[in-house]
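Reopening this one. Same input as before:
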Amino acid sequence: MSSPRKVYVEVTTLCNLQCSMCVKHAQGSCIPEGHMAMEVFQSLVTGLQSVEFLVLNGIGEPLLHPDLVKMVQLARQHMPEKGIIGFQSNGLLVNDSNAEKLLVSGLDTICLSLDNLEDTRAELRGKEHSLSPVINAVKSLDRARNKSARPFQLGIEVVISRDNMHQLNDLVAWAGTHRVDYILVSHLYSYDGRGQESILFSPNTRSAVQLYEKWQKRAQELGVNLENLPNVRLHYARDHQDQTLLEIGEWMRKEATASGIRMHLQNLFTFDAELAQTLGQIFEQAECAAKSLGIALHLPPKLAYEEKERHCFFMDEQASFVDQYGNISPCHFLWHTFRCQVNNEPLLVEHHTYGNVQDESLEEIWQKKSYKEFRQEATQSSYSTCWSCTPGPCANLLKQNAMDIRDCHGSQVPCGHCMWSIGWTRCL
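Same output, byte for byte:
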């Protein structure tokens, strides 16, 4: 492929909400705010001749850009007839006028963010996604697509957590009555540690959970608890129970090593099997309801992908990411410089760029040797499984060093800490 098939363009980093889950509002993040200049976008669109999907948003609200309609028009002129143009939005600024203009200009899909069917917490209004503006947006978009000659898909995006998981079936039913075509469900992720108690996703793999549960059951039969293993290892004088626990820990370690299973003990200690079962039941019910309503429901995994299943959707889709200045990045994780947490350890993620569309064409940047090598290594998924690493995330290895090694596997791609590759989050 001589150029990317999918391109994400951050037309703005400004937003009219202050969602607590957003990386922009995480402690320690300092992403600059501003609109993409039309000159930058015009430099980009000439390289969209073979792009199959153009997504006009990043971490901002695209409808805040004063030239969004013009951007859609320009992109439609340069993209293939069957190419898709879309973006995600909180819906606050959607009205009959701009909905019709966007669809006439060639927009194919909008995915509206909605995380709660009950607007009961007044203190969050104007700060978080809420129902009433989404209802108004859906109505405007529905009226606009009835007039559009081009097919249009209406989507809903949900960040699921302990706070709203029991509303998922109601949300599917609501979507059915409002002619929604698809629903994207993603897990809540805490960039700075706040609100972690609401997270449903487990970074443990299923094989790690099963192995841990097997040996925890054995430990309980012998009157000990695997959760005490880290402390027992620090004991100077060890009694019979301590010795028994150490032996069980060693047996578990040997089986994990023989089976190629990576285990992060603290994550396994806090894994809530009952919650995972409840979530599985909710997902099954939602899938049945969506199928009966003809809605495409895209659900995330409850547990991290197995190492052999781990893959990068962005590499699979042959995607590129363009920031507001025209810089090209390989994925969402490396689109910005920001702070986050991996297994409760702080991590600084630094943006990764391969060129600028004002200096080189999209195809030229895509074909660069360094960019091709990055995609090849990231596609192989041979980087460290940092989320399942018991010793720790070794976050400082993400920084440049003399050998340009980014993790303990000797990889040159800083992908081991990525939330997308293990199934935690997803994008349009």
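So the earlier flakiness isn't reproducible anymore. For the record, The chain has 13 helices and 13 strands.
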